[in-house]
Amino acid sequence: MIPVARSARLGVVAGALGLLAVPMVGQAHAWSRPATSTPTVSEDRLTVSATTPDKPVTATLTTHSTSCFTVKRLGVAVRDATGANLDFPGSRTDVQLCPAGITLTTAARSFPAGAYSVFGYYQDQAGAWHNLAAQKLTVAAAPVTPAAPAAPASPVAGQKLTWADEFSGGGVDASRWADTSTSSYHYRTHNPNDNKLDWLDPADVKIANGSATFTARPGSQTLENGAQAWNAGLLTTEGSTGGFQVKTGDYAETRVQLPTGTGAWPALWTWNPAVSGSHNEIDSFEYHPDNPNLLELTNHVNAAQDYLTDANAIKPGQWVTIGTHYGANSVDWYVNGAKVFSDHTGVGANWSAYLILNLSVSAGKYHPAPTGSAPISFAADYVRVFR
Prior knowledge:
Distance between the termini: 70 Å
CATH class of the largest domain: Mainly Beta
Low-confidence stretches: 1-35
Largest sheet: 10 strands, mixed
Strand content: 35-45%
Structural class: mainly beta
Radius of gyration: 38 Å
CATH topology of the largest domain: Jelly Rolls
Oligomer: single chain
Number of helices: 0
CATH architecture of the largest domain: Sandwich
């Protein structure tokens, strides 16, 4: 360890470690000195290659004196924030310093993250130590570049994203969705024949903060069966300017937050008015909070159904990813990326239909109707289709 003739403790420099250097000084003074004067030693340049914590680096020191003389040792010293010595190895002994200058490159060493002072030093023939100009040094970890989000992918091999809404805009995208009516409802805006209280109202679908929120609340209309309607939201590709339809072989996926309110009836499903009855309908899911851990998965094209129960993945207020592969010979359902049901009946070779994502309200025949007038809601993060 090298004794310190004068304090080299300095403040911390913020930011990552870069090249440390001082400008080259001018030439040694030209006037003559008395023969007995002590030569003046100047540090012309001191550099440390850029580093990160615990990565070995070297230092390069260039220095000169006003007249030639020999020093016992020349090197580069380092002090940490507490003043502890962490000097570079590779100092040189019996070095002649002259006006023409000399350059020393040390051996390598590494440093933990922290703030340091780095300076050249020499020891004269009498044994006294002399510190040259100090540099402030910070060793910091290189900034971490966040990984790019993974591209959307289908669990069905070989498929690519072909249609999607990430709900990242400020309103319903008319090229993807219509929100005023659907041919799947007997009266296009409402369908009491299916034990539903909802009456479609575009104001009850809000797109904000990367998700679509569907809300149902008591309305002023009276249904044909005399029940009070609830205003509710629905999105369908039928009637959109794009007119998109899923077809045999496609995989459709959504990520949704399941509702908590009694009477809520959310679903992702398909419909094609060109096909009679419900024989065009595939329900990716239906959910009712009175069965809190159950999803209904149904093929109405070639009859098949499963009641999927999972207390960990399915519960009120839970976000869950649900997907459906419309296979010709088998419709396969996925929850959080894992296949949970294959019906082995499929949709046939030439099937196609519009998508519907909505929040209905149960009228009470099969599932409880709302018990009060408080609004109920349901949210979706995205809808994606791969083929």
